[in-house]
Every structure is written in structure tokens, then in C-alpha cells.
């Protein structure tokens, strides 16, 4: 009899074990955390199955063996202390047994410390913005937008859909395997949710707040996900694609990305002195419009009545040119119209505005050049971009002239006292290279994500507190320690710049010797 019952239970449980590898079950994933989550899921599932078998087994056995036709009479009682203790104690023990592994997994999921690479993920309607903040203690300034690349013809059912329909993007997020990747997640507009099932990550992106997650990918491959929060009309067109590479391949990709970033900045500067023909602007403008604008405003420029305004014959596209440039650059508050000033290059912005003003019989004849876009942007940001380019070119020239001896010579030279002009000039360049990605070139930060330095109590307060947070960072935030990343001259210049730029005007000058003394004091 016992053997028969064991065989019966096995027939119930064995199919469940094989079902675990099917497409209908939670996937095992490719990270240690995803494997822990999967094993926890299966453990709880089997416990639930065992409880169901025992409870229903006893119930059906009792019904069958104590039925009225066999002459059994029901017992007359209202309370049983023993039974009440049992059905309270047994579930309590089961819950504790479930809670222990679940708590361990939850604690591990929240441990973002000692990350090798930090990536900021920003959701916006309806794309993802990725910013690489640091990698192996090196500050990075690499960012790009990731937009769905599914052809419009497939979306409109004019072509056969591929296996990756609505799960493909133009620029995938690239990460190295066997490295701890920390994700800092926020949003520009509404609540999104960054969800990659293979990583066991599903974290809300909330405007004004920073949420965190992490992953250490164990296998090379392409992993897909999507926004898991109803974020608006095109919620279904917001996929996530992560390309996990071997470390050497990732290093090569990163080197190429840095070169591309420098080239992009140089091209942006060069484009300001170039006048493009109408043919060039219209050709590129159409490409940009189809890729970034047509989902809302439609390829024909007619929009979606009551949802997205038409551009064909509209007051914006045929009216004041400056107003048109302004809304494309800065977006429109309270609507789905985003700011494209940081998403597109100067030439792309000039081209798409030119296209909108001359397509669909608008025929205004207006040609917008990159210099007009640059002038319309914040002058401080425009100057900052040029300074950053000059800084990169200057560093490259120095590296080529004195590739090895320079570092040794600088280490042997005594720390000298620098003038305010020297500190501010060098500080601005280093700030744009190492700090502006978070705190912005204007020092205004990103509200709710990265604090402003302009007028902040930290920057205008005690020099020692300012110096301390730059050297040591701040636990629990994206502010990292820079003591071992930058030289004493660079640190002194950046702090001096922050305390005297954007109207802060504290008058404080921090010298390299001050940095050295502070570092030695910590040791």
C-alpha cells in the first residue's frame, strides 16, 4: 500500500520537474541571482504541490472511508485544541522554511556594492537612454539611446514578422560577462519598468527617483526584455536588448565607443561651420524623421487626431522658425513631445526641422543649419562642448608627444601653487570630462537623480566637506571616490572650479598641496 502511494505521488511530481524546463515555466536565466530565483521558485512550487497532495489526499480518503453508506456517523464537536495547535504550528514551520532561502535571495538581490561597472538607465517615452558612468574605477562619458528597430512595415502587417518582432533595437546595451554590473535606473517622464527576465531584473524607473539593480552575466549572448509598466500609447514599442560579451571583446567595444564619442564631438563642432544643401538636409531629415518622429506624427505628417498633432500644414511647421526649433530642442511639458537636444546631433536636428518645414507641401523654403541649432541651445552647454573637444585634443597631443616620460616627470616635480586662472581653466576642462555627465555642464544636475552644484550648500559651505566627498565619495549614491582616479592637480582644479563657477563665487582656491595633505590625513 505504501509503495502504491509513493508511486502515485511520483506520477504527480515527476511531470512537474520536467515541466520546469518548458517554455511555460520561469526561465533559469544566465546570472547567479536568476538561478537562485529559479531554484527558489521551484522549491516553493514543489512545497505547494506536496501540501496539495497531502491535504487533498487526506480529504478524499476521509470522504471515501467515512461515508454515510458505510454506517459512519459524524462526530459532534465544536472545538479541538490539538487540531487547532497542529493546523497553526505546521503552516508556521512551513512558512519559516520558505522564508529562509527567500530572505537570502532578496538580500543578495539588493547588494549593489563592489560593482565593476555602473550604468545609468533612463526610461523615456518610448526609448531607453544608457549612460556608462564608470568601469574598473575609470570614469566614463559614453551614452546612447536605444530605440526599437522593428520595421514599420512589420508593425503595419505589411511584411512577415520575424522571431524578434518588437524585441530588437538599433543600439543594444553592451556589458561584459563575469563582471558585476550595477544599474542605476530612473525616468525622464512617466513610470517605466526595466525588465530582463534572463537577469531576474524587473526594476521600476520612476521620475525623480533612483532605483538600483545588478547582474553578473555568466554566458555570452543576446538577452531581450521590455518595459513592463504601462507607460503610454507606445508601451509595446520599448524593447530592451543586452549584448553580453567576453571581457576582451567588451574592452575593444569600449575603446571603439570612446573613439566614436570623440569623433561625434569633433563632427558636431565641424558641422557648425558648414552649410549643407537642401538636398542633403532633406535626405537626412527624412531618415531622422522616420526613425524618431513618424511613430507619433505618422510618415505622412498627419499625426493621430486627438492624440498626436499633425505636422502637415501645422502652425508650428509652417510658422515661426525659432518656435519650431525650440519645441524640437526642449520638448513640450505635459505632452509626449520630448526634448531631442541630447538625442540627436546638431546636423540631425537641423535636417529633421528642415524636412518638417518642407515636406508634405509645407514648402516654407526654410533651411536650418547646424550653427542655428547650436546658437539656440544653452550657450554654456555649447561652450562646454567645445571646451571638452579641445581638452580631448590637447590630451591626445600630449600623449603622443611624451607617452611615457611625462608621467614620471610629473611625479618627480614638486606640487606648485597655481593661480586662480590656471585652476579655473584646468578645472572646467576636467569637470566636463569627469563630472558633467551626472551634474551637467551648467552645474544644475538632474533633479531627483544627481544633485545640483550650482548654489548647493556643499559647494558653498566648508571647503573640507567638499574636498572630503570628492576624495571619498558618498556611500549609497552614484558619487564615487576620486582620490585614486585623478591627480592632485586635477582634484584641486575641479574643486576650485565648482566653488567659483555658475555664480557660486566663494573665492576659495584649493591647491594640489591641500589635496595631498587631505589624502595623507586619511592614511
CATH C-level category of the largest domain? Mainly Beta
Which stretches are low in confidence, meaning pLDDT under 50 for 5 or more residues running?
1-18, 392-414
What proportion of the residues form beta strands (DSSP E)? 5-15%
How far apart are the termini? 74 Å
How large is the radius of gyration?
A: 30 Å
Number of strands: 10
Strand order of the largest sheet: 3-2-1-5-8
Oligomer: single chain
Query: How many domains make up the coordinates?
Result: 4
Shape descriptor reads globular
Q: Report the structural category.
A: alpha+beta
Largest sheet: 5 strands, mixed
Function: Subunits I and II form the functional core of the enzyme complex. Electrons originating in cytochrome c are transferred via heme a and Cu(A) to the binuclear center formed by heme a3 and Cu(B).
Membrane topology: Multi-pass membrane protein
GO molecular function, one term: copper ion binding
GO biological process, one term: ATP synthesis coupled electron transport
Describe the structure.
- With 523 residues, the chain is α+β, with helices and mostly antiparallel strands.
- It folds into four domains: 2-66 and 78-109; 117-245, Cupredoxins -  blue copper proteins (Immunoglobulin-like), CATH 2.60.40; 272-376, Cytochrome Bc1 Complex, Chain D, domain 2, CATH 1.10.760.10; 403-522, Orthogonal Bundle (Cytochrome Bc1 Complex, Chain D, domain 2).
- The protein is 48% helix and 13% strand.
- It is built from 19 helices and ten strands.
- It has helices at 2-19, 32-65, 81-109, 152-155, 247-271, 278-292, 294-297, 315-318, 321-330, 346-358, 370-376, 379-401, 405-412, 420-434, 436-439, 457-460, 463-472, 488-500, 512-522; strands at residues 117-124, 127-135, 138-146, 173-176, 181-187, 192-196, 201-205, 211-215, 221-227, 239-245.
- The protein has a five-stranded mixed beta sheet.
- Strand 6 and strand 7 form a beta hairpin.
- The termini are far apart.
- Belongs to the cytochrome c oxidase subunit 2 family.
- Subunits I and II form the functional core of the enzyme complex. Electrons originating in cytochrome c are transferred via heme a and Cu(A) to the binuclear center formed by heme a3 and Cu(B).
- Residues 114-256 form the Cytochrome oxidase subunit II copper A binding domain.
- One of its GO terms (cellular component) is plasma membrane.
